[in-house]
Amino acid sequence: MAKLEVRQFIAAPRDLVWDVLADLDHQGDWMVDVRRLEIVSEHRRGAGTVLHVTSELFGLPLLRDVMEVTHWEPPVRMDVAHRGQFHGTGSFQLDAVANGTIFVWIEEVAPPLGRIGEAVFALAVRPHLTRVFRRSMANVARLAMARAATRGA
Question: Regarding predicted confidence, which is higher, 68 or 86?
Answer without folding.
Answer: 68
